[in-house]
Structures are given as structure tokens and as C-alpha cells.
Write a structure and sequence with these properties.
Rossmann fold, 43% helix, alpha/beta, Arc Repressor Mutant, subunit A, Helicase, Ruva Protein, domain 3, elongated, 23 helices
Length: 488
Amino acid sequence: MNTRTQIKTLKELKESGYKIQSIKSELRSNLIQNIKNKKSSFTGIHGYENSVIPQLERAILSQHNINLLGLRGQAKTRLARLMVQLLDEFIPIIEGSEINDDPLAPISAFGKDQIIKFGDETPIKWLHRDERFFEKLATPDVTISDLIGDIDPIKAANLKLNYSDERVIHYGMIPRANRCIFVINELPDLQARIQVALFNILEEGDVQIRGFQLRMPLDLQFVFTANPEDYTNRGSIVTPLKDRIGSQILTHYPKTLEIAKTITAQEARLQGDRICKIHIPALAKDFVEQISFEARKSEYIDSKSGISARMSITAYENLLSTAEHRCITSGAKETSIRFSDVLGMIPSITGKIELVYEGEQEGASFVAEILIGNAAKTLFLNYFPKIKKLTKEGEVDTYDAIMNWFFEETSFELMDDGSEDEYSEALKSIEPLDDLIQNYASDIALKDVPFMKELVLWALVEYKKLNKHRIENGYAFKDQYGSYLSNL
């Protein structure tokens, strides 16, 4: 434990050489030390190293109140919470103070009375930095009393005080967060009249409660978060309040699959008591993230709403659970992720996309399947040549051998509950697939080959080279002519 925390009285605190420091100066000085020591202040945040984090660090160095502006699932609240690690481990407060009074400069009536009553023997308590983070979600029902405070008539009656006495005040969340980081999430949702009440707190530290003025120089680091969509759909940040926020920082989604995979791997809750051992092909991880990238540019989805990173995280969790479910059903001790398992992610997708009118007409599940198909096409082209609709006379098409195999075999089936050996042997029977992978994806891990083969089949379906339909307990793939003849 910090040796200073053994100090119990005001006298001992003075003798220790303790000096008053505002929370913004505290954040600034600790950040400077981290930068000098090449230590990251925002561990666990990926993709912001050259964009958001430098801006946030500059705002802290400038001792600004901060507004983090971005779509949902962009780690805005996570960034705010990580700022706690830039605080000193412990700070002294007057014991019993509701608003964390500094023993050398109390601002509440209680704190001042304690100094007058006990002098140098005023009892001191130490507050850990983890207790110096306050968070409030802005909703339309938030009141000024919630944030700033109100007169407490019961306290006035018990203490026999009139309403002009400061001691009858019941402090709201903001005064109680004195010397702390205070976060207001979704700021535009806060009613305009409540936002107005923050003006003086941000600039002068004045608090006005029920008609009488208190000069309380509150020491706070404000962090606000907001979603651009909220500015038109639900409310806005009033202009004078925006003017009082020192820095507005724009957040963004991961720009590469690698960054997105790192975030998902870090955040996904993966059960340690899986019934079986599950092999996860590297391509399957890419596929999970590619769905989010496809969703962010889909014509069926409202881009203003954004696609949260939580979609990839929960989809990845469901993908593994789909494979585990197969093990539970069959009694197998190990399995590998199959491409058909990605359909188990649909419930994780449908609840996290906001559809435009065209999407609503098609339905969320249909849109989710389109996203899966588009992701398959994108990843397919990362490895294999583009599929041509028509070829010139005499030109050999890369996929002719596969098409001929399906024409001769008429149909090919992959069963949901097939064992690993049955699944692998079924795909091995399509010999042209082996040649294709050997020519264009020979560096792929051996255990990942079945997933890659199945990806090729699904991509050929998306490019209208093959037909796919659901059978009782699996999927059947046919060439276009075979399907036509079957229908006849």
C-alpha cells in the first residue's frame, strides 16, 4: 500500500509535503510521465494508435473537457474508463465528506466545519482512483436534482435549519463526483434545459440549487460521449454547451480485418468448459469480421446507425457454439468450424443492424444471409481469380473442371451432423477443388482446407455458377443445368 495512506490526520498530511493538485493537472502530469516512459495509457484499445489516442492525449495535456463523438460500438466509454489509470493511486479527503473535500482546501460546509472543529486533528481518509469514476447515461427523465442536487426538507427538519442554509442540500451526482472523472453518455439525449444547467459548472464552478447561489469551485474532469445519429433523431447538444467543451474527438470503426480480429479475440467471452475441442480456421475469423465490413456498406442497412463491434464479438461466440452444438448432438470429442456453421451467427446479426426501408421489406434474416454471401464473395476473391460470366471461344475457364464435376455428379450433399471424417471425405470427392486450392491457396494450413473448399462452393453459388438448397439435414449443391432439369 502507498505509504501516504497511513496518514490519518490533517497535521500528518501537512508534514508529508502534500500539495493541492487539480484533477486535470493530475491527469496531465501522469500522462507526461507515461509518454516519457513509452508506456501506453490506453491499453486494450486497438486501431486508434495514430488517430483517436493522440488527439485524446493532446486534450488531456490541454486540460480540456472532452466530447467523444462516434457511432455505437466504437469504444467511447472504454476510453473514458481507461482515463482512471492516469489518476494518482490515492488522494486524501476529509473523512465523512460527501463531495471528497480536499483537506487543505474544503469547499463544502461540512468540510469547513470539520477543519474549524478539529483543526490539525481533522481525520483524513484516502480515496482510491477506482472510486473516482462516475458515469451517467443521459435519458430524457434525468433531472437537475439528479445531476446537481436539491433541498432536502427532511434534513432541514431534523437539523432545525432553514432552507437558506447550505447544510440542507442533498448533493446530486456532479458535486459528489468532485475531484473525479464524470462521464455523461449519449449527451444529446439530455434535455436542453438540463444541458443549460451545466454551463456554469463547466466554466466557473457555480452551483445554483432552488434559487440560492453557492460558490463551489468543483474540480472535475468531464467526458461526454455522443452519437452523430442522435443529433437528428433524438436531440442535440446545445451550442453554448458545445462551446464550453474544450476538445471534440471523432472515433471510428476498425479499418482493417487484422485490427477487427484483435478486438474480437480480446472481447469475446469464450467458455473454458467446451464439450469438445474446436479448431478455428484462420479464414473463419476473417469471415466473421468481413460480415461487419459488408454491413457498413450495404444498401439495406442504415449507415448512420453504424455497425457495432459487438456484432462481430457475439457472432464469433455463436459460431463456436454452433460447432459445439454439433459435438453435443453427435458425441464427438473434437470438431472444426465449417462454413455452414456461419448461419448460426444470424441471430447475432439481425438484432444489431438498423434496416432502411428496402431492408425492412426483405426482412432482417434475408439481409443477414445477403451479408454472409457478400462476405463469401469478398474473401473468395482474395485467393482465387474472378469468376467470369462468359468466356471467349477456346478460352479455358479456371472453374470449368469443377462445373463439369457437378454436371456429371448431378448433386452433392453436406450433412449438418456428419462426422469430421464424413465431412472431409465428402469434400475430397470433388477432386477439382484440390487442384484449385493447390494452384491458388497452397500455403493454407492442412486443417483449414475443408473450410476453404466449402467457401469455394458457397462463392460459386453467390456467382450463380452453382445452385444450393436446404435439404432435411444439410445442404445440397447442384450445377445450374442439373437444377433446371430436376425442376422439369
